[in-house]
Amino acid sequence: MMQCVKRIVAVAALLGVTVSAHAQGLADRVREHTFANGLKLLMVERHTSPTVAAWIRYRVGSVDERSDERGIAHLLEHMLFKGTKTLGTTDYAAEKPLLDRIEVVAQRLTLEKAKREKGDASLVARLEKELADLEKEAGTYVVKEEFAQIYNRNGGANYNAYTSKDGTTYLISLPSNKLELWAAIESDRMLNPVLREFYTERAVVMEERRRSYEAEPEGKLWETFLASSFNAHPMGQPVIGWMSDIANLTRTKAEDFLHRYYAPNNAIIAIVGDIDPDKTIAMVERYFGAIPPGVPVPPVAVEEPPQQGEKRIEVVGDAGSELMIAFHKPTLPHRDDLVFDVIDMLLSDGRTSRLHKKLVVEKQLVAGIGAFSAPGSRYPNLFIISATPQAPHTVAEVEAAVYEELEKLKNEPVTKRELEQILNRLEYEEARQMTSIGGLARNLTEYEAIAGTWRYLIEHRRQVATVTPEDIQRVARKYFTRENRIVGFITPQEVAKQ
Amino acid sequence: MNRLCRLVSLSMMLLSLAACAAAPRTVDPRTLTFAPLDFTIPRSERATLSNGIVLYLLEDHELPLVNMTAYVRVGSVYEPAELTGLAGITGAVLRSGGTTSLSPEQLDAELEFMSSGIESGIGEDSGTLAMYTLAKNLDRTLELFTDVLLRPAFNEARVELAKKNTREAIRRQNDDPKAIAGREIHKALYEGHPLGREATMESVGRISRADLDAFYRRFYRPQGMILAVSGDFNPAAMKARLEKLLGGWRPAEEQLPPVAAPDTTPKKQILLARKQVSQSVIRMGHPGLEKNNPDQYAVRVMDYILGGGFTSRLTQEIRSNQGLAYHAGSRFDIGRRFPGTFIAETETKSASTAKVIGLMEGIIADMTKTPVSNEELQQAKESIINSFIFGFARADSVVNQQARLEFYGFPAGYLENFRANIAKVTREDVLRVGRNYLHPDSLTVVVVGDDKKFDQPLAVFGTVREIPLETAK
User: Fold this and answer.
1) How far apart are the first and last CA of chain B?
2) Is A150 left (phi over 0), alpha (psi -120 to 50) or beta?
3) Torsion angle, CA of A350/A355/A356/A360, rounded to 10 degrees?
4) Contact assessment for residue A65 and residue A72, using Cβ atoms and an 8 Å cutoff
5) What angle do CA B450, B455, B459 make, to 5 degrees?
6) Alpha helices in A30-144 (DSSP H)
């Protein structure tokens, strides 16, 4: 029903009913269109400069992985930069048999290596050599980074992609006369990707893991903390995968994941900038309209069982102390999630926020403190407070001071002025989020995917306005409990040795 | 209802000229052609207040927002060596320390209730004071901005808090291996110059409120200050308002003290900071060039081919071909007031550290030996020229860009001629500037990692000097 109404609106617009773009809020400026194959297109026309941002978001992220394919959503995101049957190759027909042989050898090698010390070392050496020779031969057909070459030559900026628990996004900004280039490349990427150079890229991802999680003490705490927070739900598993997960991923697993989920009905496109929406719809139809739909991404069936008592996680590291305190909470559209948005701003937004005033300025226990919801939003998540203790103060002192502030939320109603300040902030944010075409494209795809509609962006402030001081007390009492709490901290090496 | 939906949808597809193709069509993106882009560099209005403050203004009524940034001729290069850290702390407390009429708490409360913001900072060769506000709160936010700029209080307790936070940052400065490597190569390349100094527990300990106040009084003044204003305002009214608020500000004129140019002689040195991590951080480079050098356009093209982005030689060989790193690249940072640096960087697992250092040195050296290919040259030039418009995508980036060009004294026509200057670069130019400005035999190499696990000792590259990583108490 909803879809039908939207389509009628779209037709009216196609027939020449134009809408003035001057000084309107987001509500009046987003043009929405759903194609027959389920592909969703969101557009905002904006002529400040002759540029356009184009984002494609797939509704599939690391929570949708099975346990034997952890890390595949992210590795696949890397692999989709490697080209298609047309791009990135001089001769796909000649290249394909080599790619098939590589896969056979690589799978045998991966299996043999998984036996670890029980494996046959000479077989591993032989397979490694065979793989290297085949990859070298296949490499003679490769045109390196051809997507990037073409985009860059045409003035592309911010060409990138990212994978989260919730989804996978491919983004670029282009001079607006080049939008058709985007459609040609991205429809080819959706329909005909070739995952060439897979095993070299797998090594690149292992380096990415070392760089972001192993060499950085905070990264190490973050991933250990999240994994310890969830007993059952994949929300706790690292997006990039554990090192041994990555080492055991194969091209076949990546292709399975690709063919299962990368289809137009699981994709949301946002195009923001110097465009003509009618022509843009026609162009997207031309390039993407005939791509067949696939199966919708099924819901993650596993439910996180209620936590039975406080969890405490220590990471000993070559670094100063850090503290994280988290509480399990529901996600949107649950009303309590909205109340947490308010609590988040009360506690940590700006210099007047409660935690900053009390712990940074007054007690001087921390050098910095923040609060946020993480690690994803499609399934119940965590409300997290993160603090950097200031010497000579200890994690225990900081923890006690944070709990004191959380108790205040339970026992004393917040003031009207505090709530008014939050609404003023959201009014400003509504305007600010429209200043960058890329930022707006990000928000539109993100909320369409997570909340089910981009309109959440405009409804959010109205919803927040209904949050009462009693709501905040109720939510604080319900979730800020010892049983529901996870505490993680870095203990500096030299302290751990004492 | 469903059937009606399908009918509507069908008519729409016909209207939108949708091909009812049986099979998905593929167009070769390499063969597409495009209409020319209609683009001229947007200009902002330049004006001057009676006391010499220069304004750049650009109206943009699309959103009810106003942004303003003041550029101040100050910087850490002017702080006395024994007070290193003074500029950074002055920049922070200018805002956090309240004004003569509002306590820090009052200032924070009033700004944040309106959802306006004022932020201040001092870098190596400039200071900024920036504000943002909803248009409806412009008047009051401008008054507060003026108060912070002209009448900061440097509240004693906030000075102590800023010092405490700076000391905590020093205590933690060896936590992140990438931060260690970045700091150490910067120190090594600017050794003996104010740009190469780092705050210490001792230097921060010596800083007093009186030092902040004196530093502020010496450098914050109308002469040479530039304001960039953009958004939802009336320019005539804005100019009159700024004249009223700031035009009467006339502190004593004083010449900015001269700062000697840094020594730009490249030095071959291998520096090792030991840290028990599974991945080594590698940085290598030497002093670079500054903005008045006419070779900068050829250098930019060379730099793009060597280390700029996915298509660069460093990324393709180290990441894409060999799978040895996630990130590999290089950058000539073209100095605005002082010669900048050339730095190539990557991170790789301990067991491939020496291999990657050798690869990087070889790839850098190649740029000085043989001309780049025509394809590489075209790729680099077209990319730089065609993405130029992204510097002007927002009103605030337009005014700030123009303000910075004047602030740093870029030659007239710099922006207007930029694309033509890039277009002129030839393969011969790229080889020539490679030979003149890259020094593969005199690289300063910094490695942070676990040297017991390296594939070869760093001594194969030259004499190794260890940088001790001590945790300050």
Assistant:
1) 73
2) alpha
3) -170
4) yes
5) 80
6) 72-79, 92-114, 121-139
What are the strands, taking DSSP E only, across A176-232?
A: none
Q: In angstroms, what separates the C-alpha of B9 from chain A's closest C-alpha?
A: 7
CA B23 vs. chain centroid, Å, equals 48
DSSP state letters, A384-397 = EEEEEE-TT--HHH
CA B156 centroid distance within chain: 31
Residue B287's nearest CA partner among B335, B328, B329, B359 is B335
Closest residue on chain B to A434 (Cα): B63
Length of chain A: 498
pLDDT, tens digit (0-9, with 9 covering 90-100), for A332-382: 999 999 999 999 999 999 999 999 999 999 999 999 999 999 999 999 999
Minimal-distance CA residue of chain B relative to A429: B115
Q: Is the pLDDT assigned to residue B9 strictly greater than 80?
A: no
Q: Note which residues in 418-447 of chain B have CB less than 8 A from chain A.
A: none
Q: Fold for domain B269-466?
A: Cytochrome Bc1 Complex; Chain A, domain 1 (3.30.830)
Alpha carbon separation from B126 to B162, B216, B258 (Å, rounded)? 20, 13, 14
How many CA atoms lie less than 13 Å away from A468 in the CB half-sphere? 3
- Taking only residues 38 to 67 of chain B, the set having a beta carbon closer than 8 angstroms to any beta carbon of chain A reads 38-39, 42, 60-65
A23 is written with which tokens?
């000084």
Instruction: Work out the pLDDT band at B473, boundaries 50, 70, 90.
Output: low
* Chain A partners within 8 Å of B176 (Cβ): 216-218, 319
Q: Using an 8 Å Cβ cutoff, are A30 and A39 in contact?
A: no
Instruction: Identify the residue whose tokens are 């000539």.
Output: B332
Q: B175–A434: do the CB atoms touch at under 8 Å?
A: no
Q: Which of B6, B390, B448 to mutate to test the interface with A (most CBs of A within 10 A)?
A: B390
- pLDDT, tens digit, for every residue of A458-491? 899 999 999 999 999 999 999 999 999 999 999 9
Q: Positive or negative CA dihedral for B362, B364, B369, B370?
A: positive
C-alpha span between B382 and A75 (Å, rounded): 30
Phi and psi, residue B260, nearest 5°: -60, 150
**What three-state secondary structure class fits B198?**
coil
Whether domain B45-246 has CATH 3.30.830.10: yes
Question: Residue A2 corresponds to which tokens in the numbers above?
Answer: 């909803």
Mean pLDDT of B186-209: 97
For chain B, the domains span 45-246, 269-466
Residue B5 has pLDDT above 60, yes or no: no
Lowest mean pLDDT among A32-36, B38-42, B177-181, B185-189: B38-42
Going from the C-alpha of B195 to that of each of A150, A328, B191, B262, the distances in angstroms are 39, 47, 8, 8
CB contact under 8 A, A176 and B37: yes
Domains B45-246 and B269-466 share a fold: yes
**A39 near A269, Cβ under 8 Å?**
yes
Nearest to B16 among A175, A285, A424 (CB): A285
User: Cα–Cα distance between A343 and A332 in angstroms, integer?
Assistant: 15
According to the model, what pLDDT value does residue B471 have?
A: 72
Determine, for residues A7 and B8 on separate chains, whether the beta-carbon distance falls below 8 Å.
yes
In sequence order, what are the residues at sequence separation of 6 or more whose Cβ sits closer than 8 angstroms to the Cβ of residue A472? A339, A342, A343, A346, A409, A413, A414
| The pLDDT value given to residue B27 | 81
For A50-64, how does the pLDDT look when each residue is reduced to its tens digit (9 = 90+)?
999 999 999 999 999
Q: Once rounded to an integer, what is the mean pLDDT over residues B35-46?
A: 90
Q: List the single residue in B with minimal CA-CA distance to A419.
A: B113
Nearest CA in chain A to B349: A207
**Is residue A143 left, alpha or beta, with left meaning phi > 0 and alpha meaning psi from -120 to 50?**
beta
